[in-house]
Amino acid sequence: MKEYYYISQISKLYGIGPDSLRYYERLGIIKPRRDENGYRIYGLHSLYKLSIIRDLRRLRFSMEQIGEYLGDLSLDNTIGLFESEQQIIQQEISELERIDRSLQARLDHFRSLADQPFEIIRRQVLPIRYCLRRQAKLQRDEEIDLAIKKLHRRHESRIHELGNLATGSIWSMKDFEPAQPPKYHSVFILLDSSEEDEADFSLAAGDYLSLFYRGDYTQAAAFVQALYRYAKEHRFHPVAEPLEIYHIDNRFTTKSDEYVTELQLLVTSEIGDDV
Question: pLDDT tens digits, residue range 61-110?
Fold first, then answer.
């Protein structure tokens, strides 16, 4: 067996690039000798370290960890290092499982919308829903998009991916003019059950009139008026401003005819004196 190997031979033997080998040398982990011509030569004592480095890099250990480990190589340190990495892997598995559940829920929701009747008003009972809210005077679609992005950015360290959370806005009915684009006073992000503690706002539980529509948002005003007419005809009293929930929007498609939006109006079954 050869006593020494050149850098090109080591690189081929271990599948480690010459630049990486020079980096290990700078870190002091591997210390090759120089032959009479100044070329790096690696002795047999270096080979076992390269095997360890290659195996630990595959396990995603940092070079700092590997250097400390090789500096005090023992069975106890080996067991401790592996147990530490195993804990990290378990945490990553848990996070990937959470992401998988979230993606599956979103896929299930998309598929359920295929069977959703559109432009039909229905009454539904909804539980309290916890949200994050940003208040701002808004009108254009771009303003709503930006407000939602700002809201998420303000809380991004505490909530999961925006793409897996439902978003919406709240109409400003005092500013409503039938011939003009609707105005809004708030946007919100609906939180899932695992994130309710982060909420700063909630949508009340109760009876809601609901209408789904497909397509761009220019239709919204007509559908909101339809909700109010329906409420009056069926002796319901609106007790909150309409909600606009974006089930499929520009986060998922650039084709506006694929957008799916839901309008919700909280009502009671008795008409007040002001209606």
Answer: 888 888 888 888 899 988 988 898 899 899 999 989 988 888 898 899 99
DSSP 113-149: HTT---S--EEEEE--EEEEEEEEEE-SHHHHHHHHH
Fold classification of 4-73 (topology level): Multidrug-efflux Transporter Regulator; Chain: A; Domain 2 (1.10.1660)
CA atoms of 205 and 77, how far apart (whole Å): 56
Q: Cβ distance 71 to 46 under 8 Å?
A: no
**Could you say which architecture CATH assigns to the domain 117-268?**
Alpha-Beta Barrel (3.20)
**pTM reported for the whole predicted model:** 0.72
Segments making up each domain of the chain, as ranges: 4-73, 117-268
**What proportions of the chain, in percent to the nearest 5, are helix, strand and coil?**
45, 25, 30
The residues, ordered by sequence, that sit 6+ positions from 187 with a Cβ below 8 Å of its Cβ are: 133, 134, 136, 138, 144, 147, 148, 151, 167, 168, 169, 170
- What is the amino acid identity at position 130? Y
